[in-house]
Design goal:
Layout lengths: L3 H4 L24 E3 L5 E3 L2 H5 L13 E3 L13
Antiparallel strand pairs: 1-2, 2-3
């Protein structure tokens, strides 16, 4: 399996759960906002500015993320 370092976005290293390297996951980050069901939104400034994630942005600029996705700017809730 390819790693996050090989497949993450250039600016933030964002990857979906397929390349995520646990235990760091969006749902454990201070910037994760719970959405409907298992999805959520990221309000981290670096992720919101990542040009490769523009198709994941809502009108408010938040980026749609899954609970097991990850980026280099992870900030633990605990």
């Amino acid at each position: 399996m390819a790693s996050q370092k090989e497949n993450g976005t250039y600016q933030t290293g964002f990857v979906t759960q397929v390349q995520c390297e646990p235990p760091r996951m969006c749902r454990n980050c201070k910037n994760f906002r719970q959405g409907l069901r298992d999805s959520g939104w990221c309000n981290g400034t670096h992720v919101m500015a990542d040009p490769e994630l523009k198709t994941r942005r809502n009108p408010a600029g938040l980026v749609r993320v899954g609970p097991s996705d990850y980026c280099w700017f992870f900030d633990s809730k605990s």
